[in-house]
Design a protein that fits this description.
The protein is mostly beta strands and about 180 residues long. The protein has a single domain, classed as Porin. Strand 1 and strand 2 form a beta hairpin. The longest helix is centred in the first third of the chain and has 14 residues. The N terminus is likely disordered.
Length: about 180
């Protein structure tokens, strides 16, 4: 219910953002195995909007044995590491603080999966000895915030922190003035 109330607040803010966009940013962000693509609009002296999607792809090492072997791995096989993957969307409001600095804040939601990698010393399950299974999955919602710095008329440097997916990344984007 808490995330529904956040969504309602953000929807009210964004619905009030019917002013024409003065600057737009189309950015691509990368951090580790994470990729993000987004669109942000800025209007002078008014609140505007942003929307972005991001995902961290991957799983564990070796063959996927989810559904065949339980989350604890095959008995006796040592646990090696866990890795998360996720897919999410976020949206919210933006404000142009100075001519070259814009801030944004909103809500993000996503699906997460945790993968656990194990080692099979007999190499029966995979030639490398490594295999992975899905340990846990769920959905998350939370705060998303960040900033854009307009480097010149075309290039924009961005930073985004997504607390829903426990992720932070840098982005580079193109700006278009309207």
């Amino acid at each position: 219910m808490k995330s529904v109330s956040w969504l309602a607040i953000v929807a009210v803010v964004v619905s009030g953002c019917n002013t024409p966009v003065m600057k737009s940013v189309k950015d691509l962000g990368v951090g580790g195995k994470t990729i993000s693509i987004g669109y942000t609009g800025y209007a002078e002296d008014r609140i505007s909007y942003f929307v972005s999607g991001e995902g961290k792809f991957g799983g564990g090492r070796g063959e996927d044995y989810t559904g065949i072997i339980g989350p604890g791995g095959f008995p006796g096989d040592p646990f090696i590491e866990s890795e998360n993957s996720y897919y999410g969307m976020s949206f919210g409001g933006t404000y142009l603080v100075k001519k070259r600095i814009g801030l944004f804040v909103g809500i993000g939601a996503g699906l997460t999966t945790e993968w656990c990698t194990y080692y099979d010393p007999s190499h029966i399950l995979d030639l490398s000895g490594y295999y992975h299974v899905e340990c846990d999955s769920g959905s998350e919602a939370g705060l998303v915030y960040g900033a854009h710095v307009f480097l010149n008329e075309k290039w924009v440097l961005g930073y985004e922190k997504n607390e829903a997916l426990d992720n932070a990344l840098w982005s580079i984007g193109l700006s278009e003035d309207f």
